[in-house]
Amino acid sequence: MDRAFGLTDCIRLEVGEPNFPTPQHVIEAADEAARSGKTRYTENPGIPELRSRIAEIFTEDTGRKTEVGDVVVTTGAMAALYTTLMSIADPGDEVIVMSPSWPNYLMQMTLLGIRPVTVSTNETNGHVPTIEQLESAVSVRTKAVLLNSPCNPTGAVINQTQMARIIDFARRADIYVISDEVYDKIVYEGTHVSAASYDSDGRVVCIHSFSKTYSMTGWRVGYAVAPPEIATLIRKCQEPTVSCVNAPAQYAALAALNGPQEIIGEMRDAYRERRDEVNRLLSSSGISALNPAGAFYIWVDISSSQRSDVDFAMDLVDKHQVTVVPGSTFGPSNEDRVRISLATTPDQLYEGIRRLIEESRS
Ligand code: PLP
Hints:
Elements: H1 2-5, E1 11-12, H2 24-35, H3 48-62, E2 71-74, H4 76-88, E3 94-99, H5 104-112, E4 115-120, H6 131-137, E5 142-148, H7 160-173, E6 176-180, E7 204-209, E8 222-225, H8 228-241, H9 247-258, H10 262-283, E9 297-301, H11 309-320, E10 322-323, E11 325-326, E12 337-341, H12 346-361
Parallel strand pairs: 1-10, 3-4, 3-5, 5-6, 6-7
Antiparallel strand pairs: 2-8, 7-8, 9-12, 11-12
Helix pairs in contact: 2-9, 3-9, 4-5, 4-8, 10-12, 11-12
This protein binds pyridoxal-5'-phosphate.
């Protein structure tokens, strides 16, 4: 990214944020909130109207009866993840995390002194961890397993049977499940299954965000839905770190939930069209890539380029002004992959892919 910033006309395929504007009614709700004096600290876990609407929607979506007290509105999903990890694990404790997975998980654990125990997902297990893998990763220090479905970067979506088995495993191991579901509305094949739907004894914390669903990355609003004792801890951890989420942004988030929902399907359909075209371009050039069932990334196999992921990514930016993310950013054993994002304009995206194909042949 640093190298790309110095270039003009760089095609940015590394950025994980929707290229759609935030809906107008959401912007207007923030404007109205600020103008009418909603510019002070709010309740620490979020404004009651927003929490109660989230609880209502979460109950409908997952079937898990959710109370306002189970919801904590956070500064993006990032803060929800951080305070959840802080609440569940002490320094020296272990959390099971997949490789590849979103790099911030490992960075957050490093900051908190938590030991990540990595489980590899690949073509053999369909990029979903098997119960045998999870069982062999558990120790007396394990506090949680961290899931992400749909997954960044693979796009894998955990199905009902797999989710039921994973939650059953967590129950037997007596650990928490932290389920990052920020891409829950971006599913192309199958349906999103929430970990909360299988939570019979209060061990699942779901992490959600307005960033991807409503194209609101810069507003920084997300939330955790947790068993009451964990929600209380998350809330307490939030107080000394950020106090509460930006007040007008919370009113904007409420407007997003209460307003028209068509934008969600429109964005998903646009990503689907781009996904299909990118896969067509790559496969007709003999480059293999995962066909993601959800999220908006393509996990590309660059082994034919005979270079490491970092060398390939640097060559691509230096010679073709295209940025992608090296696979090793997502954890060990991913040096033969790069991740590209579908969340850019189709023209830029397809031109970027053409240049990537050219570079992989050089
Ligand atoms: N979780 C995953 C898997 C992500 O890919 C991202 C952002 O890219 C986030 C969480 C962060 O979301 P937010 O913008 O709500 O902090």
